[in-house]
Structures are given as structure tokens and as C-alpha cells.
Write a structure and sequence with these properties.
Distance between the termini: 41 Å
Helix content: 10-25%
Radius of gyration: 15 Å
Strand order of the largest sheet: 1-7-6-5-4-3-2
Strand content: 35-45%
Number of strands: 7
């Protein structure tokens, strides 16, 4: 069955443990504007970018070296009419060993082309996952949004 949820997949030369640890280092690949705990199941944290984007997330699934899922509890985009976009969606990271490499499939469940923010969010997630997260895993240095 074909889904219209946004997905991005990367293949890295590091093992699943290194990939998992990098993903959990949210401020190392997504944004330095993260507040709250992000490590343990049911931890809640917030992300913000200036007055343009704010979201509150909760870690709802954590399987070391295999999977991470964050639920979006609240969200605000300055640039959308529909203020409910992202609320109730999930950010899912599936990690799978493939020979000597590790595949990471990121899915933003609920981020669909019908959303007003889709194009902007698609471009942002593609950059954060395929460039910043991939770099963090490979080199130890990502390119997150800097503290504002």
C-alpha cells in the first residue's frame, strides 16, 4: 500500500548503535533550539525557530539501535492558515542493519502533500536527515539550526 507520508532514507557506513546515538542527539543534527529532556520514554521537549515555528514533542517509542518515535503534541507555524498542521503526527526513525551499512528511514507520519507546510517541511526534513544527520553519523558533526 502506497503512503503519502513524507519519508527520507539514508545509508551510512556506521553501525546501528552509532546511528541511534546520533538520532537521539537532536541538537546535533536538527536544532540547538531544543528545550527539555529527549532521552527517556515519555520525555517531552520543545523545538522553536524564532517566531516562525514551535512544536512540542513526546518520545513515545524507543527501541535501542532499531527505532525512535516522537509524537507531536502541539505545533505552531506562523505561515499557515491551518494551525493544526503537524499536531498528532509522528516523527519515526527506523534503523536497519544492511550488511556492513545501516539504513535509516525517517517518516513523518501525517505530513502529507495536502498540508500547507508540505513543501517547506519536505525541503527542511530532506536537508536535516540526508545532509545534517548523515554528516553527524559519519563525521560526528551535523549542521543543525543554530541557537537563536
Amino acid at each position: 500500500m502506497k503512503t503519502s507520508d513524507f519519508t527520507a532514507t539514508i545509508l551510512v557506513d556506521q553501525n546501528p548503535d552509532a546511528a541511534f546515538n546520533a538520532i537521539t542527539n537532536i541538537s546535533g543534527w536538527w536544532s540547538e533550539n531544543i528545550e527539555g529532556n529527549t532521552d527517556k520514554l515519555n520525555d517531552e521537549f520543545t523545538y522553536h525557530y524564532k517566531d516562525i515555528h514551535y512544536c512540542k514533542l513526546k518520545l513515545i517509542e524507543r527501541v535501542p539501535d532499531q527505532k525512535l518515535v516522537w509524537l507531536v503534541l502541539d505545533n505552531y507555524f506562523k505561515f499557515t492558515e491551518d494551525k493544526s498542521e503537524w499536531i498528532g503526527t509522528k516523527l519515526v526513525f527506523d534503523i536497519l542493519q544492511k550488511g556492513n551499512q545501516t539504513a535509516i528511514k525517517f517518516t513523518h507520519e501525517g505530513l502529507v502533500p495536502q498540508y500547507e507546510c508540505y513543501e517547506i517541511c519536505r525541503k527542511a526534513w530532506t536537508n536535516y536527515v540526508q545532509d545534517s544527520l548523515s554528516s553527524l553519523i559519519a563525521t560526528g558533526k551535523g549542521s543543525p539550526t543554530l541557537k537563536s
